[in-house]
Records
---
Amino acid sequence: MKSTGFIVLTMACMLITSCQHKRHYYPLTMEQQQVEIIRFDSALLAIRTEQSAEDVRALYADYPEFFPQYVEQALGVAAEDTAYLIDALPLFIHDTLYGFDKTNTTVQQTFADMRGIQKELTHAFTRFHYLYPELYIPQIYTFVSGFNASVLFLDDGNMAVGLDMYLGSDYPYYNRVVHNYQKQTMRKECIAGDVVSGYLFAVFPFAAAKGRLIDNMLYRGKMMYVCSTLLDEPDYEVMGYSKEQWQWCEQYERQIWNRMMDKRDLFKTEQLLLTSYLNDGPFTSEISQEAPPRLGTWIGWRIAESYMNNHPELSLQDLIANHDAEQILRDSYYKP
């Protein structure tokens, strides 16, 4: 009986300690992996109406890999339809009805200097390279999308960022095209987090054998936890929350978890339930209309963090490679 009590006491101490200190995974000095940002947006916006045929063909020649993907993924146009693009791109760039002309000018002003974002991404991918030196470090293309796309993962392993989606939560034209809850992440400060998390979700796709809520929660939570170790940003920024939303989650964490347990939601697979817990929205309807969105991901992150703090022998690579959500939950000793 005494030995059992000792185990419980030791576990309690571990949990207290793990809540107070976040693990560090990287040495102080690493070989820097410079991330290149390619300003495709500037080249695109330089198209001249009277010489659009020449300029569009130049984009095909100068960006042979990216331009077709941009046309298809961001604009929804067939990449081989050169004749249509020659006519349509100048109209798109200089459109006044939807405010694209003003927005494109604002993009060039807001992002005249990308060195801060480049520094953040270089820092994050230097850490990532330390974990996975065999994986490709992406180049980052910037583009304007007509409020149609934020971050793209490209066929060649590179990434692209729609700068017109990051002009600030109070940018007036957003009122026409998005819901209020979406504006929280439409800020310059969110670019690095969106790129890094988007890259992680792309190179480490969902691989659980089952599609239960707990499998999705732990998959997304693991990715966000790893992302938080790559970036030197507050956790609420990594999550795409406001500081107040993060504090709400911390304040009601126990009640959130107890409600999920009482409803036995973890092992359900219904799509509406998964959407409520995992997708963006004004709130997490399965919990409360006061609850921030994506609470399933947030709880998954907390479980992953508890698991790693209680198992210092495990690496981030071990966490990513482990697709057994029930085992992670069990061995996390998560109990808010």
Note: The chain has 17 helices and four strands.
---
Amino acid sequence: MKVLLLNGSPHKNGCTHTALSIIANQLEKNGVESEIVHIAAKPVRGCSGCGTCKKDDKKRCVFLDGGVNEVIDKLESADALIVGSPVYYASPNGTVLSFLDRMFCAGSSYLANKPAAAVVSARRAGTTATLDAINKYFTINRMPVVSSNYWNMVHGSCAEEVLKDEEGVQIMRVLADQMAWLLKCIEAGKQAGINAPEAEAKVTTSFIR
């Protein structure tokens, strides 16, 4: 079992990475492998809605910048996903939103039915709005959303301050425990012959009358 963790902060080893590292360490204690991928090293262009990825059997984005396709490659074999982002103006980092738009558009078939969670980092406020924005990517794609004992957030202006946020650190540990437990339950279900529900063909309607 493997969890892919995406670090959406421009600061590779900052607050968001600290939160994700706590999760990764706790997953390891539960016998679950993890990998942290830094997705915000450079600006990422947004989705243009061209639809090319839907016509491509490889399910990849036509734009080659930002490492989106490389992460989709990793999602094929990953069993779960955690997305971490700092709070910018009460919202996820713009790079995270552009990345997720393209990743979910092109790679959605590798995401359905895999547990997911959002983790956010802030100095003070905007955390719940940021969590809400990221969680919507999961709930549109039949991904079980994993919870902790409070909303998945840490606070601090630097990595050292995050480690002093005792409640936030505990939230990350509990989130990892919950993720590991759910992954093991899913695996046990597969071994017992219980598979994920078969997807219905998507029905789309318009509000235009």
Note: Residues 81 and 116 are 5 Å apart (CA to CA).
---
Amino acid sequence: MSVAEYMHVCLHDPADGYYATRPAVGAQGDFITAPLVSQMFGELIGLWMVELWRQMGRPSPFRLVELGPGDGTLMSDLLRAAGRAQGFREASEVWLVEPSRPLRRLQENRLGPALRQVDRLDEIPGGAPWLLVANEVLDCLPARQWERREGAWMERRVGLEGERLVLGLAPAPPSIAAPDTAPEGAVFEHSPAQEALASDLAARIAGDGGAALLVDYGRAEPGLGDTFQAVRGHRREDPLEHPGEADLTVHADFPSVLVAARREGIETAGPRGQGRFLRALGLEARADALVRARPDDAPRIRRQIERLAAPEQMGELFLVAALHSPGLQPPGFGDAP
């Protein structure tokens, strides 16, 4: 099977897939995301949502959507901050797109039982503007891989060697959009699933208005390289070692994602590093307010800033991009230190 098929089965098989049976986030799980690093991440995104809502003329109702909401931490922090804006909470219809039953239960425990939870984006009705956030969603969408061998591209395939899973090579169709000048051994990745999600989001925004914020680790420029990886217990391992027991990811391909979105007639902003984006939204000011309220927590809060925004940590590895209706001006993408 292709690498994309392998990723899909390992992550989403209803009986044995990772997200269907054992997704584990946080310090005791397999990985930690920005909302779990600090409440400031979700709070600043909440203020981003408020600003876009105001630019749209304070529509009521509007769909406030999160793709891949994990344990509900991001939406909880977002609502706490955004709810201070008069009329925002009353106008919002909160929708969580989450096929994982274990994660749905975590979301219900954190946010309460009165949730609109759906498996797919297309289950959310149209007819009202959207404000959507997707944090670390693109990276778990399947990608195919090709490897350059003797002047030709060969597709990487997952197969069996005895009882062990291994990567092999098969002839690739001549239509793949990979550079002919790539060196021997180079790896080219392409994720039709990432592009399809961008197209779907953009079509909804083009039809109903609004904006989507995408946060993920990935590439800002087209390029080559093998980014297929597995994380289990906060450690990287061979993606073929424990199928269904580890989180499998590839880098988000922001150039292709944004091109796909613009084809639907909307506009895009970014990508830019998460650190610069958060600082432009007021990360330092929010941290100062937390320190004033909890002086004993100052060292921990400063460590959180470093984790979220320092270039050598999440600040440059993670990128942020926005899809939006023409005329809107998403904050966070202008000048910032």
Note: The radius of gyration is 20 Å.
---
Amino acid sequence: MPKYLDFESFAGDEQYLNDLKAAKDSSDTDDSEKEELQNWINSVESRVISRKQEIYSKLTPFQAVQVARHIERPSTNDYIKLLCGDDFFELHGDREFGDDKAIVGGIGKIGNYSLMIIGHQKGHDTDENINRNFGMAHPEGYRKSLRLMHMAEHFKLPIITFIDTPGAFPGIGAEERGQSNAIAESLAEMSEIKVPIICFITGEGGSGGALALGLGDRIFMFEFSVYSVISAEGCAAILWDDPSKVEIAADSLKLRAKDLLEAGIIDGILPEPLGAAHRNYEAVAEEIRKCIFKELPCLNEISADELLIQRYKKFRSIGKYSIQGESNA
């Protein structure tokens, strides 16, 4: 049974709709009953669609956060399976400490493109989330990611990243092994990787843990994904010491795709099916495929040196600042 969020008031009707469809398909149902059921199905389905459209057209920022965190939302491995099929070979380890299961990566093929694909990996149930540390990477995860990016550069493979994490893991062990340094190295070295990098924020893009995979030539967000420097809960705790202000925090953070597009932080928004990505994996995977096929030919025509210059300018142009007379305003 699908997992519904508190604000999804169509849940009862949708479950009733599924029961009607099951009854219609039953071999015990005669033709007259099937016709009557079909009329009910059409009526209820129309009501469900209308309610979904109404709800998802008016999501609050914190409701968008809840959608982005949905446990059934597609993960990196889901996208890899749909986009690459059997044409993917996973690579493991950072060659220093171990293999972090919160980040997966390897060489895959999408259409005629051979690519290095790297992404955060959450789980679809409690056991898998524990195994994947809820998508929160340790330093070895970011070092693995960076190792694979350098491998991609060596073999001239474009890089695709999937971003979906609450943030880098904040535990003592991670700090002892150099968490902040691993993220800083990721940012510094991604800025100089001489192959195209396309980043997709597929769910929750949280803080430096997300940014460590997010320094690319093109950055896209799904319609109901979020991207921010801190979680809404963390923001509410720090600014007001009041968990009840989480919705105010979410609104203030401007963490939705449309806000980030307006700020020039991302390059585009990918649409999601009615009811969000977790309701149709194939549809959202196809949006990624189309985006890759559109962007990669253009990026592949740019020389390596020019690619780095454009990447530098892209990130220097974000925000407004003035340093020793230099301004980007």
Note: Residues 124 and 177 are 28 Å apart (CA to CA).
